Amino acid sequence: MEKILVGLKRAIDYNVRVRVKNDGSGVETDGVKMSINPFDEIALEEALRIKDRGDASEVIVMSIGTDAAQQQLRTGLAMGADRAILVDAVDSIDPLSRARVFQEIVNREGVELVILGKQAIDDDNSQIGQMLAAIWGRPQATFASKIELNGNTARVTREVDAGLELVDVDLPAVISVDLRLNEPRYVKLPDIMKAKKKPLDQIPIADLGIESSSIIEDSHFEPPAARQKGIIVDDVAGLVSALTEKGLL
Amino acid sequence: MAKVLIVAEHDGAVLNPSTAKCVACATAIAGTEIDVAVLAASAAAVASDAAKLDSVARILTVENAANEYALSAILAPQVVALADGYDYIFGPSTTFGKDLMPRVAALLGLNQISDIMSVEGSHTFKRPIYAGNAIVTVTAPTGKPVVATVRTASWQAVDATNSAPVESADIAVDIPSHTRLVSVESGQSDRPDLQTASTVVSGGRALASSENFDIIFALADKLGAAVGASRAAVDAGYVPNEMQVGQTGKIIAPDLYFAIGISGAIQHLTGIKDAGTIVAINKDEEAPIFEVADIGLVADLFKALPELTNAL
């Protein structure tokens, strides 16, 4: 195939302990390390492996957000993507509008395979891939832990609650990836230098003619209710009697 | 009266308990009439399960050979055809619902709310973000249907004492052929289902091998419990991923949870936040799991676990 499109979302690094602001207006982002959403990194790694095998000729990375997302796109280019597209929009843009942005880029570029993370670790929505597949009228294979390409179809192993599900999807298609698909490569310094020369196009969202609608408003943020700290028992006998006391045995 | 449509999750024979939890969420919205849609190749058995759920007004069945297995590309246009006239369209926040409901929402030109944990008003809900490290209150626009998934661990299943009428729904939609099921491999055993078991025993990286997990299984068998694992144990290859408990695995709410040799990474704690009683056995007394455990035992699990199994 010609082109694979991969979405890279800028999100708070997964090692950061997220804190809700005291006034409940959001979570603390000042001075907090930002990274590529880890599932998106796995998506990019898979696209690069497909290209390395000779099954695709170009890998395009794309982000929707502010200028700051250039940093994550440059990391994607350093990993090996050929070029990047940043669609300028507010970070709070809703999932359906994001899916529509992907659809526009898919149409402009003639993309045959879109690979996305199964969810972003900030909003934990897990929606964009499914929404894009819906408006594109194409198959979706979410939560992928294995992808095999056979000509015009992809055989995808999906991690579902019941176990592993194998589906065949005709291309073009949208695949969203789970953790066990692969281990993303480390970026080497020379690749970071090389990535600076790769093309990064910025497109204002207004140029794509997308208007947000049906917005779900975030009104208040709070920390989760804390569990009460419990008791420490001395031995197994103590554990058994504590459980018996609670009527659990 | 606001109308709610719940998309039933099932395996073709039995209704998944996640559906009764979606009904519970729907009853938390004031003044609703709740219908449950059963899309199946042959719907009778599942429909009769669903008809028993309290607060359900009626069951709508859609029988089609293409519905033998739940594939979202096939189900979504049928749900959209059924959704006309409904104010709320809900599915469970399981892999079934997470896959299906955003596709339904997008076909309707709507955004979707993921993981409803509480109902605060007719269009206002709470949901977890950042792996449960923050809870956000969200408000959907009024005057449009609300499409959402329901976080099953936050809701108690409604009772099953009802006998709602079952009606066959007549819909005509084009079913795409671009998505085809090849097979489903399940590592399922005779043990209770991890997602719904009232007692769960989970092992972590400290088990150190796949063979050592036998002592976890032995305790679980004694308790009639399901078996889970931390992401570290899954990543180390001790057990398959479908046993993973946590933000990136299954989010569960058993009455009794045993965390054995699990340090208690945030991502794991998110998956057990709503458990009734958490028991932790770990030899590291500094392990974060003890911050959330109701009963903690600082001990070598290889000694304590056989002793516990024998004591029961």
Structure notes:
The complex is a heterodimer of chains A (249) and B (312). By secondary structure, chain A is an alpha/beta fold. Chain A has a single domain, classed as 3-Layer(aba) Sandwich (Rossmann fold), CATH 3.40.50.620. Chain A has six helices and 13 strands. In chain A, the strands form two sheets. A nine-stranded mixed β-sheet of chain A has the order 9-8-7-10-6-1-4-5-11, sandwiched between helices. Chain A has a two-stranded antiparallel ribbon with strand order 2-3. Chain B is globular and about 60 Å long. In chain B, helix 5 (214-223) links the parallel strand 12 and strand 13. The mean pLDDT of chain B is 95. By secondary structure, chain B is an alpha/beta fold. Chain B has two domains: 2-168, Rossmann fold, CATH 3.40.50; 199-311, Rossmann fold. At the A-B interface, helix 3, helix 4, strand 7, strand 8 and strand 9 of A face helix 3, helix 4, strand 5, strand 7 and strand 8 of B.
Quick one: CATH class of the largest domain in chain B? Alpha Beta
Alpha-carbon Rg of chain A, integer: 21 Å
Sum up the overall morphology of chain B in one term: globular
The major sheet of chain B is characterized as: 7 strands, parallel
Strand arrangement within the widest β-sheet of chain B reads 5-9-4-1-2-3-10
Strand content of chain A: 25-35%
Strand percent estimate of chain B: 25-35%
Low-confidence stretches of chain B: none
Largest beta sheet of chain A: what is the strand line-up? 9-8-7-10-6-1-4-5-11
| Number of structural units classed as domains of chain B | 2
The overall pLDDT of chain B, averaged over residues, is 95
Helix/strand-derived class of chain A? alpha/beta
Greatest interface and its participating residue counts: A-B, 80 and 85 residues
Taking pLDDT < 50 over at least 5 consecutive residues as the criterion, the unreliable ranges of chain A are: none
Q: What's the tally of helices of chain A?
A: 6
Percentage of residues assigned to helices of chain B:
25-40%
Terminal Cα span of chain B: 52 Å
